[in-house]
Design a protein that fits this description.
Length: about 260
């Protein structure tokens, strides 16, 4: 059995001021300290990253950004570089979230440039992929996601694959309260792993593949009992510290019961 890390990442999206983020961190850390079996990540808005760096220092909770530029530096008004997010202690960065693809015109090509840049800088990209409802209903979800994965990972080195996290997030399940069944999530995670295997061989076994889309404390356990679902990317249910604590605890108990080695 491959001992992949289980990753539970909160995606706060465009929520929380600095003081809200700091208050959250105090409450959250007090309840999750001591959990070592999971990689817990908070992906906060850029303005909250520096204050969170100070709060999360020497804790078991990692920090992530929600986007970054493919450029190193220069005349790119409004952009944030890999070095800038590293400078505020980010270890992770979400790339290619469907909200960025759909509302801000992000393309497979641009996402690929960002993945390469993040890896070169030493960040762990959380690469998001997922189909919309039409594509699912046409029976083309696996093909769609396969193409997104192949495009996003073009040109990466085999040894870098183990530093990537992939999040399968069907667009129809994001923020809708409609979760994919755990079997659907498992099937798509297997399909993504098969794609990775085709690209990089057995290195594919090392890549944590998360599910995202209306994950909450009540359904995390069922999702995580699937052998190829290695964690979750959580939006709405990560916004309240105590709800997210509950979700993290439920995930940790599954890990101990089913995935523990
Ligand atoms: P949700 O969002 O948990 O609110 O559905 C997930 C995401 O967009 O990452």
């Amino acid at each position: 059995m491959v001992n992949r890390r289980t990753v539970i990442a909160g995606n706060w999206k465009m929520f929380k001021t600095v003081s809200e983020a700091e208050n959250y961190a105090v409450k959250f850390l007090a309840e999750v300290k001591g959990i070592q079996d999971l990689d817990i990540v908070l992906c906060a808005p850029f303005t909250a990253l520096y204050p969170l760096k100070n709060k999360l220092e020497e804790s078991n909770v990692h920090l992530g950004a929600q986007n970054m530029s493919w450029a190193d530096q220069g005349a790119y008004t409004g952009e944030i570089s890999a070095q800038m997010i590293l400078d505020v202690a980010c270890a992770y960065v979400i790339l290619g979230h469907s909200e960025r693809r759909e509302m801000f015109g992000e393309t497979d090509e641009g996402i690929n440039k960002k993945v390469l840049k993040a890896l070169a800088a030493g960040l762990t990209p959380i690469l998001c992929v997922g189909e919309n409802l039409n594509t699912r209903e046409e029976g083309k979800a696996a093909e769609w996601v396969r193409s997104q994965v192949i495009h996003a990972l073009t040109g990466i080195l085999r040894e870098d694959l183990s530093r990537i996290v992939i999040a399968y997030e069907p667009i129809w399940a994001i923020g809708t309260g409609r979760t994919a069944s755990s079997q659907d999530a498992q099937e798509m995670c297997v399909s993504i792993r098969t794609t990775l295997n085709g690209l990089m061989g057995s290195e594919a076994e090392k890549v944590p593949i998360l599910y995202g889309g209306s994950v909450k404390a009540e359904n995390i356990a069922e999702l995580l009992t699937e052998p190829d679902v290695d964690g979750a990317l959580v939006g709405g249910a990560s916004l309240d510290p105590l709800s997210f604590v509950k979700l993290v605890h439920n995930a940790a108990s599954v890990f101990a019961r089913v995935k523990g080695v």
